[in-house]
């Protein structure tokens, strides 16, 4: 038997409960996070139209640059002011 | 498994010996003489009754005392006060033994001096086992047991720890040996590694350096590279997540290049040199294993490139008439550094006919217009790896680095009208606002020149970067600290 050392970050993520899926989007506030890739806004404009049609209130956010993770403050603002978030990934 | 507290040395005179050493056998009568005339303890590494069975002879059965007190030679004679050896003699020397012990007339029938033998605690066949037994407890990584019937190489692939090439099993002995390459403590935090933002210790870097195939003396370079990669400016997260085929490319300067045998000559960007090929790979394994960045996960590279396996090379400083690349970035020549450049694989800069610096520079400029795309301006840096024969053109002309860069930039002012999106039926390009302007191809300080390659061959190389500056990655240089 060989014993080796674990080369990984040994992350043991705590189990997190998922938020209950809403029955309907009617009356909920949905965040649309634009990651600032070219033409992402075109896609999100259309998504906003669809969501508004389903009775949701849409709030738009954008990352300063698509090359870096969203700033902590932005994530916090979305989490505290919205019921759901859709993040548009690039490409 | 581990025994961490070192056994104390007894006060008085202490002699560490083994029967399997002719010098120890030679001095056996002296030891008996000293036991009668002074407060002597003999520590025997092999035979518990050597030189005789007596209450002043102890057996270092597990070599704990010898290992913890760094005994390298037998016999070693110590004078110990309050558990601390304040005088040491190795081997047999009548004068030195008499001086240390204060006892005259020792071994009058022996030769004046005789060198000793190697201590069992430094026997190459035992050192790994002893290091694990006595230092293993300093390592905190989770132990993973690979069963006897499992192939250890296959087991590591199965666990997802490899970039696709074989990895060396990171046993405790190998990791402890790797850690001897740095003065830093194993639990020192090196960086927070993206994308999972995991605190990475010196130990975890050492584990991955073992797997990549590094030697212990490469570890300081790997540590500096991990630190540089995980800075906010270098933005390893973005470099990993981009769909472009880019990775961290490492350029090493300073005395450490020679100390660890790096290649700055023949085939420096290719295969064949252990340091060049394992240091870059070790950084990538840290990103993969510690940070959790894997292709198809947060690594979104559409096609990737060989530079993502690991690309690391050294500059030929001695063969260059210019100050080194690191000096041009503000470092002293006696300081070792690693520079991290976010780049693609190298491509050829071909020129076999230019014999004048002006001609070669102009041709370089023509080729560099295609860096990333001829229609992309001011957004991407480049590294030029200038070969010795090409460098000779600038040496002959008396050009220094500044002159070369000035001349090169003068040929890299691009007519904005020619690169606007839509011009010549090509939809890609710059926005309309560049119309009528002359725009530099590269941002200020966006051309990095490194000297390297073999003496023959009229070929240089260019490595295109990805998005430079705040929006992407900034080239970072870190001092390498032992």
Write up this protein:
The complex is a heterodimer of chains A (91) and B (482). Chain A is of the alpha/beta class and 91 residues long. In chain A, 26% of the residues lie in helices and 23% in strands. Chain A contains two helices and four strands; from the N terminus they run ββαβαβ. Chain A has a three-stranded parallel beta sheet with strand order 3-2-4, with helices on both faces. Chain A is extended. Chain A has a domain of 60 residues. Chain B is an alpha+beta fold. Chain B folds into two domains: 124 residues, Glutaredoxin; 326 residues, no CATH class. Helix content of chain B is 29%, strand content 22%. Chain B is built from 15 helices and 21 strands. In chain B, strands 13, 14, 15, 16, 19, 20 and 21 form a seven-stranded mixed beta sheet that branches. In chain B, helix 13 crosses helix 15. The radius of gyration of chain B is 30 Å and the shape is elongated. The interface between A and B is medium-sized, with 17 and 42 residues. Strand 1 of chain A pairs antiparallel with strand 10 of chain B.
Give keywords.
heterodimer; A: 91 residues; alpha/beta; 3-stranded parallel beta sheet; 26% helix; 23% strand; B: 482 residues; alpha+beta; Glutaredoxin; 7-stranded mixed beta sheet; 5-stranded mixed beta sheet; 21 strands; elongated
- Helix/strand class of chain B: alpha+beta
Number of helices of chain A: 2
Sequence of strands across the biggest β-sheet of chain A: 3-2-4
Mean pLDDT across residues of chain B: 95
List segments of chain A where confidence is low: pLDDT < 50 over at least 5 consecutive residues: none
Helix/strand class of chain A: alpha/beta
Specify the biggest β-sheet of chain B.
Answer: 7 strands, mixed
Main beta sheet of chain A: strand number and arrangement? 3 strands, parallel
Strand residue content of chain A: 15-25%
Q: Termini separation of chain A (Å)?
A: 47 Å
Report the largest inter-chain contact.
A-B, 17 and 42 residues
Shape of chain A: extended
Q: Which residues of chain B sit in consecutive blocks of at least 5 with pLDDT less than 50? A: none
């Amino acid at each position: 038997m060989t014993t080796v050392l674990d080369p990984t970050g040994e992350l043991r993520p705590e189990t997190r409960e998922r938020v209950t899926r809403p029955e309907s989007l009617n009356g909920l506030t949905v965040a649309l996070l634009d990651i600032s890739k070219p033409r992402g806004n075109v896609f999100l404009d259309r998504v906003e139209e669809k969501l508004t049609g389903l009775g949701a209130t849409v709030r738009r956010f954008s990352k300063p640059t698509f090359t870096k993770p969203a700033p902590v403050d932005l994530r916090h603002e979305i989490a505290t002011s919205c019921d759901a978030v859709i993040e548009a990934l690039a490409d | 498994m581990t025994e961490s507290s070192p056994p104390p040395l007894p006060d008085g005179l202490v002699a560490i010996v083994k029967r399997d050493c002719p010098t120890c056998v030679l001095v056996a009568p002296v030891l008996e003489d000293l036991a009668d005339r002074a407060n002597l303890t003999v520590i025997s590494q092999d035979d518990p009754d050597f030189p005789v069975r007596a209450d002043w002879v102890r057996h270092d059965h597990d070599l704990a005392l010898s290992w913890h007190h760094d005994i390298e030679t037998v016999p070693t004679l110590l004078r110990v006060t309050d558990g601390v050896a304040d005088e040491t003699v190795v081997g047999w020397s009548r004068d030195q033994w008499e001086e240390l012990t204060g006892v005259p007339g020792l071994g009058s029938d022996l030769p004046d001096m005789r060198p000793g033998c190697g201590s069992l605690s430094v026997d190459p066949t035992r050192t790994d086992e002893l290091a694990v037994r006595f230092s293993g407890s300093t390592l905190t990584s989770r132990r993973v047991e690979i069963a006897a019937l499992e192939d250890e190489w296959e087991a590591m692939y199965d666990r997802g720890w490899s970039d696709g090439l074989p990895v060396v099993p990171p046993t405790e002995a190998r990791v402890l040996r790797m850690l001897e390459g740095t003065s830093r403590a194993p639990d020192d935090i090196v960086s927070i590694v993206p994308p999972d933002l995991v605190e990475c210790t010196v130990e975890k870097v050492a584990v991955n350096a073992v797997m990549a195939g590094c030697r212990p003396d490469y570890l300081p370079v790997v540590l500096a590279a991990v630190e540089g990669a995980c800075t906010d400016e270098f933005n390893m997260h973005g470099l990993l997540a981009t769909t472009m085929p880019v990775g961290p490319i490492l350029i090493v300067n300073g005395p450490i290049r020679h100390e660890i045998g790096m290649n700055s000559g023949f085939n420096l960007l290719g295969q064949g040199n252990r340091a060049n090929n394992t240091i870059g790979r070790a950084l990538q394994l840290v990103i993969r294993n510690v940070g959790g960045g894997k292709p198809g996960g947060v690594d979104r590279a559409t096609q990737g490139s060989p530079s993502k396996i690991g690309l690391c090379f050294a500059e030929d400083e001695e063969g260059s008439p210019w100050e080194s690349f690191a000096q041009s970035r503000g470092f002293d020549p006696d300081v070792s550094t690693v520079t991290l450049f976010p780049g693609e694989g190298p491509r050829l800069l071909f020129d076999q006919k230019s014999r004048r610096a002006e001609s070669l520079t102009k041709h370089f400029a023509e080729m560099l217009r295609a860096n990333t795309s001829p229609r992309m301006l001011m957004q991407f840096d480049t590294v030029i790896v200038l070969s010795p024969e090409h460098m000779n053109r600038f040496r002959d002309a008396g050009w220094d680095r500044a002159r070369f860069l000035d001349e090169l930039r003068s040929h890299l002012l691009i007519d904005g009208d020619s690169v606007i999106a839509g011009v010549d039926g090509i939809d890609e390009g710059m926005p309309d606002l560049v119309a009528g302007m002359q725009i530099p191809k590269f941002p200020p300080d966006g051309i990095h020149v490194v000297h390297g390659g073999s003496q023959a061959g009229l070929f240089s190389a260019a490595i295109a970067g990805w998005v430079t500056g705040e929006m992407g990655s900034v080239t970072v240089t870190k001092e390498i600290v032992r």
